[in-house]
Amino acid sequence: MNNFETIETRVAQVRAELAMQELDAFIIPHDDEHLGEYIPAYAERLDWVTGFNGSAGLAILLADRAALFVDGRYTVQARMQAPASLFEFLHLIEQPHVQWLAEQLPAGARVGFDPRLHSLTWYRTAQAVLADHGIELVRVTENPIDLHWHDRPAAGKAPVILYSEALAGQSSEAKRELLASDLRKRGLDAVLLTQAEPINWLLNVRGRDIERLPVVLGFAVLYANSTMDFFVDTDKLDCFAFNQHVGQDVSVYPIDKLGDVLQRIGEDQQKVLADPNTANAWTQLIMEDAGAMLVAGLDPTMLPKACKNDIELSGIRAAHLRDGVAMTRFLAWLDRLIASGEFEGVDEGTLAEQVEAFRREQAHYVEPSFDTISALGPNAAMCHYRHTNGTPRLFGQDSLYLVDSGGQYLDGTTDITRTVKVGDVRDEHKAMFTRVLQGHIALDQVRFPHGTAGIQLDVLARLPLWQAGYNYDHGTGHGVGHFLSVHEGPQRIAPKGSMVALQPGMVLSNEPGYYREDGFGIRCENLVVVTELEPVGELPMLGFERLTYVPFDTRLIDRSLLSPAEFRWINEYHAEVYRRLSPLLEGEDLSWLEQATSLI
Amino acid sequence: MNNFETIETRVAQVRAELAMQELDAFIIPHDDEHLGEYIPAYAERLDWVTGFNGSAGLAILLADRAALFVDGRYTVQARMQAPASLFEFLHLIEQPHVQWLAEQLPAGARVGFDPRLHSLTWYRTAQAVLADHGIELVRVTENPIDLHWHDRPAAGKAPVILYSEALAGQSSEAKRELLASDLRKRGLDAVLLTQAEPINWLLNVRGRDIERLPVVLGFAVLYANSTMDFFVDTDKLDCFAFNQHVGQDVSVYPIDKLGDVLQRIGEDQQKVLADPNTANAWTQLIMEDAGAMLVAGLDPTMLPKACKNDIELSGIRAAHLRDGVAMTRFLAWLDRLIASGEFEGVDEGTLAEQVEAFRREQAHYVEPSFDTISALGPNAAMCHYRHTNGTPRLFGQDSLYLVDSGGQYLDGTTDITRTVKVGDVRDEHKAMFTRVLQGHIALDQVRFPHGTAGIQLDVLARLPLWQAGYNYDHGTGHGVGHFLSVHEGPQRIAPKGSMVALQPGMVLSNEPGYYREDGFGIRCENLVVVTELEPVGELPMLGFERLTYVPFDTRLIDRSLLSPAEFRWINEYHAEVYRRLSPLLEGEDLSWLEQATSLI
Q1: Which of the listed residues B116, B176, B243, B491 has the most CB atoms within 10 Å of its CB?
Q2: pLDDT value at position B160?
Q3: Angstrom distance (rounded) from CA A292 to CA A279
Q4: Are residues A582 and A439 in the same domain?
Q5: Are A20 and A95 in a shared domain?
Q6: Domain that holds residue B403
Q7: pLDDT < 50 stretches in chain B
């Protein structure tokens, strides 16, 4: 971690740079130029200039003051990492930063920003708000931080993974032609793609440029005639093999040619689809300034990428089976650890490493799909707890342990949460666990007509908690990619969530929870896939096929709260867990599984 | 009904008028200048020119052709009422009429419209679409229909009802000051109000200008200093008594002064809030053209009007009790009719009249809150069936009867649907009735946290149907006014429904249904009010207090489908029905109630 003196020096360097460029302020978001959830080390500008290394935030440097905006997850961490002598700490959501900035500066002021690191929507809104106050928003051509970040990590050079059709289930040509024909139908000439997942999905490639997200970073333009320009660090690929893989109508360019190509597209007055919320301002403004007509719209890869094909689903099911073996071995190991009584020095970190160790033994395992949440007792009450942000809590003093983890396998991405008994439990622990599980079961069992959106189903997972006067403050389900991001849209099950209809092949988490501040935390999470059900009644109906098969801790169930249908669900689920996993386990692990899946 | 020759003459007259004004087309919506759900007889221009008298639709006359746009409810009725020799029949939703118009006319064409009868949003969109095709949208100053409609009904002269604070629960002054202080906070000078319900609510007045909606029609402007201009047919009120009632800072103007005042507001360059979706284009364009700054926003009366105060709720409860007596007497009468075997000549119309007759005997009854749906057998499968649109079906041949009706009482508005056994029923009738009732019960019983919107709860009413492979194609709950419209926003429980949070005091219907085409129809509807619940657990929760107490037909229940909690709900509901209604009934009606509410 940077110490405070280093931060002071860096802030001074950036301020000197601003003075030279006659800027009164500069905005430093956490985002990189792809505006995705994860960023590579060389893009951690916010960390470099503030010391704060959380996954979301934004800083603003003025000549004589500075502010760091973070959300509720990071209020403590930000104060620990960034010097209060330099930064005011403000709330990212409750204190809109552009409004704040407008109030700090006089009319005539000039605010710098790097157009590569902000969406076009941000730019248009910020420009309008600042203009109302007579303040100018100035695009910098070179980021002042980059000029002074001398020990900046180099970008990775991990080679592009040519992801076979046997895993992807559809050729890149077929995907491109599908999108291109849609462009033609809409009278569009091209679509700009700037996020990693759409491009990697569309080209059937993967990479190792970011931790947790197995992608190669780049930019792309797909044209209505199905040809495509791909902008990437060309050191990462063998062009001949790449074009063999994706087809000859994909042209590879080094990333620094992106501007020239966008300029040419503009000069040709093309009609270009781009998502102003996810594509950076720089790429779109180059085109627009040169004469292109920008058509704002959702990234057209989102929906086809979300609806997994049969081959992808086979891979996802296989990955979940292996992941189930790893998780089950971990849970068995954990019970043996408790039984042994020998857990001196064991802490949340030890447990997380053990989960990872079991996953590493599984075929096709690549890396965790996100940083494991390994939380004992009160730590589990913080939804986004990371034991690595402080001193991990020691094992042995708590009733409940919550572990939320997942794996990137070559054939699929997993995400599972189990809450387990690791000490004496009270009736209240059992009652709350049971209500969470009841919500999980209700959502798992729903049948719904075509056209139903996630926002409509969310209540099913909450109802057992609501009826007892409780709730949880997060969504119930997020989309999950196929050996891609563990968080993907457009599908989502949440109170304010997506209005997009759930469609066959969409993978989602089902993860209700309950959090008692300073007490304990509970979450029950499986992944499911939307599927056509056998018809009954008169309408074709959709439902969820379960992907995750790992025992829930039946020692935490309050049987008096369960309906006969819920008893049946639990016993049938565990019978199926046993049927699937028992051939893949042996010895103590197998005996543990037998007991863990026995009838309740 | 007009015969086809009359329609031909009228269309020819309007076409001649269009030719004189050099217009190539003219658009005739169903709406009047208030753009509300109900319109007075003198505003039935669409009926006059087409013969079609449904509650929604739009016609377009061109020089040599014409089209009538109606929605799925009215496809049959429109073809019966409007001459096919003159009109093409198009779908109001699936065939956007502006797009259609743009395709019929050459560039340079001129399309006339009456800006009083369209919203500003419609105008802006239509103008943009037509301009894309080089077509001009021309505001007519005098509606060509009005010029030729010589036997046009006069507007009613029913006097304004000064609605007492004892019924309204809050003075008009207090309501106006609340809204005005919000205008001041938002830096606005005024708000334009054009719909009947907001104005009648705000001034604590009612009227008899429209059937089914007890309002006086008018326009109003509320200013940030709490003064108000009210534009109304001044014959309808005694100005002295009116100002005694509403306070001295409301100025009354005849309606024809509206333009002058809006013009002056514009010239004063005021910042005026108006809802471009519900206020007509004419009112807003006058202001804008004269220099006003229009601020588009939701009508600010919507939310306070929807959240009923304690006095309003007392009235609503009392009205429901009387309405329950009327409905129960009707249901008892119906069973006696069946038992008598003497129902020759009885049809859906007879039954509807009988419902109305029992309501008329109740204190404070004014009129039906909407046209009664009285539907036997297959007719009930049409959600919006009206026996008055054709030959009413004769009683005696069907299994089920559906009656959806409501009353306007001086102290509240009711809306109730019951489905009852009127012949031999099959297991399937019982299974479907039971599933509908289970959905009704689930929604009735939900507890939900503050911030929950209707769209989140809708699924609860559908789940028992979905799980069996069925659904219904309408929303589950609409808002209901207080001696005002039986349909009000912003609250709504529906799949695509309102994102507005449900708040204490909001009245809603709970009306799941099931419709078997050409077979039968089922709906179970009570009204409920959102209320704070006694706290359990750790969060304050909201829930529904039932307003409607009338027996459900337990002869239609398939007990094998019910959970213990559902049995309990039905028996507790019926015990409460008995407790409330038995003191108000006697003789055969009381014995019927006793049997109808006995334990199942």
Answers
A1: B491
A2: 97
A3: 15
A4: yes
A5: yes
A6: 307-596
A7: 1-2
Residue among A515, A519, A589 nearest A550 (CA):
A589
pLDDT above 90: residue A384: no
Q: How many domains does chain A have?
A: 3
Comparing alpha-carbon positions, the chain A residue that sits nearest to B496 is A499
- Among A444, A448, A459, which would you mutate to test the B interface (most chain B Cβ atoms within 10 Å of its Cβ)? A459
CA distance B300 to A236: 58
Kind and range of the H or E run holding A111: strand A110-113
Is there a domain that residue B413 lies in?
Answer: yes
B249 and B338 part of one domain: no
Q: How far is A265 from chain B (nearest CA, A)?
A: 25
Instruction: Name which of A1-5, A428-432, B474-478, B528-532 the model is least confident about.
Output: A1-5
Inside any domain, residue A209: yes
> Pick from A455, A469, A563: which is nearest to B535 by CB?
A469
Mean pLDDT value of segment A419-431: 98
A268: domain CATH number?
A: 3.40.350.10
Are residues B297 and B324 located together in one domain of the fold?
no
* B459 with A463: Cβ contact below 8 A: no
* Count of CA atoms in the C-beta half-sphere (13 A) of A146: 13
Closest-CA distance, A78 to chain B, in angstroms, reads: 30
Q: What is the model's pLDDT at position B154?
A: 93
User: pLDDT digit string (tens) for A284-293?
Assistant: 999 999 999 9
Strand pairing partners for A347?
A394
Q: Are residues B102 and B178 in the same domain?
A: no
CA quadruple A215, A218, A223, A227: dihedral, nearest 10: -70
**pLDDT tens, residue by residue, B418-446:** 999 999 999 999 999 999 999 999 999 99
B154 part of a folded domain:
no
Nearest CA distance, B474 vs chain A (angstrom): 14
On whether residue A155 sits in a domain, the answer given is: no
State the nearest Cα–Cα gap between A456 and chain B, in angstroms: 5
Q: List residues in chain B touching A: CB distance below 8 A.
A: 445-449, 451-453, 455-460, 463, 466-471, 495-496, 499, 535-539, 541, 563
Domain-ending residue, one of A298, A318, A343:
A298
Per-residue pLDDT, A389: 80
| Residue B282 and residue B345 in one domain | no
**A355 in the same domain as A251:** no
Chain B interface test: which of A434, A466, A560 (most B C-beta within 10 Å): A466
Which chain B residues are closer than 8 Å to A439 by Cβ? Answer: none
CB B183 within 8 Å of CB B301: no
CATH of the domain at A543: 3.90.230.10
Same domain, A472 and A345: yes
Which residue, A113, A148, A183, sits at the end of a domain?
Answer: A148
Q: Stretch A101-109: mean pLDDT, rounded? A: 95
A402-416 b/e (C-beta count within 10 Å ≥ 16 → b): bbbbbbbbbbbbbbb
Phi then psi for residue B546, to 5 deg, are -75, 140
pLDDT at A2 over 60: no
